[in-house]
Amino acid sequence: MKIQNYNNNQLYFTSRLNPVKPFHIDTKLGRLNFSEIKSKDLPKGNLLDEIADFFCTNFASFTDDPYWLAYRSKKNKDYIRNGYVSYLKPKIKYDDGNLTMLTGRDENGKLRAACLSYGFDEVPHANYTTCYIDSLAVDKKFRGFGLGKTMLEKTIDINKNTFTDVFLKGEKKAAGFYEKMGFEKMSPQNPSQRLVVDVIAAHGDGDGYPDYVHFFTKHIQPDKPLWYEVINKLVFRR
């Protein structure tokens, strides 16, 4: 795998506050070009449907969760994809400048990898401290080339001066990957994490927790307090 920044005359889009410069990765299956999409451009044409279908297809290819497995069935496909589009629309509409949609396309323009992140909004005040990796996916054919790792690293790097921590909901099957990336599992048995975990679990009805996913966190500003400890004081007065 070879990663290079590239510069051409094509227009590319970046998030307002945390821009990622375009880059490409050479794999055994060809080159993938990575760049961002502005949140205001996502609803145009069929782009949002394409991205939703990409995420849903790849979620369904790497899970034991019956909800995402149902996406493999034709009768459920439109319902689940449309639900995901409806979920994304308010995130895009109320983007505060921190939303980053990083996409990787092959030389034919086909979407092969994508990562969506923004300030975490499921816990009061967390959007000020915590970057949420909402969705991370790589086409089955292109797995094993470090694309997920690179997108995650790029996303964390651009957010390291804005947020103190990163949070995500990751498939149990991918726990080893996230732990290698420096994430730790959150647990209701941890007194400092319990109240925050309970709020996220209650908010994310149907997200597969705790049967199919873990909650993962990574501290990226060591000189600052942990995000859930801040929330404990601000929200729960603990």
Q: What does the model show?
A:
The chain has 238 residues and is an alpha+beta fold. It has one domain: Aminopeptidase, CATH 3.40.630.30. It is built from 7 helices and 9 strands, in the order βββαααβββαβαβαβα. It has helices at residues 47-60, 66-69, 74-93, 147-159, 175-180, 194-203, 227-234, and strands at 2-5, 23-27, 30-37, 100-105, 111-119, 130-138, 165-171, 184-185, 213-219. A 9-stranded mixed β-sheet has the order 1-2-3-4-5-6-7-9-8, with helices on both faces. Helix 4 (147-159) links the parallel strand 6 (130-138) and strand 7 (165-171). Helix 1 (47-60) crosses helix 3. It is globular and about 55 Å long. The model is unreliable at 2-14 (pLDDT under 50).
SSE layout:
Blueprint: E1 2-5, E2 23-27, E3 30-37, H1 47-60, H2 66-69, H3 74-93, E4 100-105, E5 111-119, E6 130-138, H4 147-159, E7 165-171, H5 175-180, E8 184-185, H6 194-203, E9 213-219, H7 227-234
Summarize the structure.
The protein has helices at residues 47-60, 66-69, 74-93, 147-159, 175-180, 194-203, 227-234; strands spanning 2-5, 23-27, 30-37, 100-105, 111-119, 130-138, 165-171, 184-185, 213-219. The chain is an alpha+beta fold and 238 residues long. It has one domain (2-234): 3-Layer(aba) Sandwich (Aminopeptidase), CATH 3.40.630.30.
For the record, what is the CATH homologous superfamily label? Answer: Gcn5-related N-acetyltransferase (GNAT)
How many domains, as an integer? 1
What is the number of helices?
Answer: 7
Q: Name the CATH architecture.
A: 3-Layer(aba) Sandwich
Structural class: alpha+beta
